[in-house]
Automatic annotation (TrEMBL):
Keywords: Acyltransferase, Antibiotic resistance, Transferase. Pfam families: Antibiotic_NAT (PF02522). It catalyses: a 2-deoxystreptamine antibiotic + acetyl-CoA = an N(3)-acetyl-2-deoxystreptamine antibiotic + CoA + H(+). One of its GO terms (molecular function) is aminoglycoside 3-N-acetyltransferase activity. It comes from the Bacteria. It comes from Trebonia kvetii. Belongs to the antibiotic N-acetyltransferase family. InterPro entries: Amioglycoside_AcTrfase (IPR003679), Antibiotic_NAT-like (IPR028345). Its EC number is 2.3.1.-. GO terms for biological process: response to antibiotic. This is Aminoglycoside N(3)-acetyltransferase.
Amino acid sequence: MAAAADATRAPESRVSAQGVTGQQLVDALRGLGVGQGDTLLVHGSLRSIGWVDGGAQAVAGALREVARNVVVPAATEQNSNTSRVHLARIAGMTPEEVLAYRAEMPAFHAGMPSGMGAIAEAVRTGPGAVRSGHPQSSFAAVGPEAGYLMDDHRLHCHYGEDSPLAKLYKMDARVLLLGTGYHACTAFHLAEYRYTPSPPVRRYECVVTLADGQRCWTSYDDVMLDDHEFEVIGKSFEKAADVNRGDVGNAECRLMPLCHAVDFAAQWMTENRK
């Protein structure tokens, strides 16, 4: 892993109160260091960028213009009774109310909206987009390798070796935090499958749509995911590794090699998780 005392900082690109255009987004992303051959895993906040002419679709268009492949998380928590979103919604309900709520929970299907924000949804619903099939932790991608990246996302593997993250690792993809913090860095989840000793496992349950359109609950065991330390891991990584920093619109952004981030996180977890 290449080391640097300070993260590389791109020139300031903040915009005026009049907002930012698609071309300004393209220029800022290139100034940050995004290359035409890059495969990007993007975590984006439209609100952080500020007012954009064309909204989230313009951001998605700019990303597609500057990179070869664009991948975004397209996770759904509203169809799971083991997710934090579900547990927060049923807090205070009676057992009868929980059963009634569970009966009305939406079942996952390929066109189901994600909970990952406007930019991710603009990529997911854009022309040529492909979505992986995991009913809780799917991704969406556009670009020449989108089909390959999204194929064979296994049920028992949210973010591990049978997920798009492992393929992104092998492709030397880069992570782009577009106005988001390290708490949103999904790549760190791959490290949760790789640190030693073996990570703990838990049971997950969600409702899906079968081929005939019927609802069906499914359960499976997978690694216990825990993102509470991601911000700490990210800050430590930034002190030791090659991270490009700059502004896209009004959003503070970070661009980094995904494999370096995963390797660092796996080592950090090995040393710090009990």
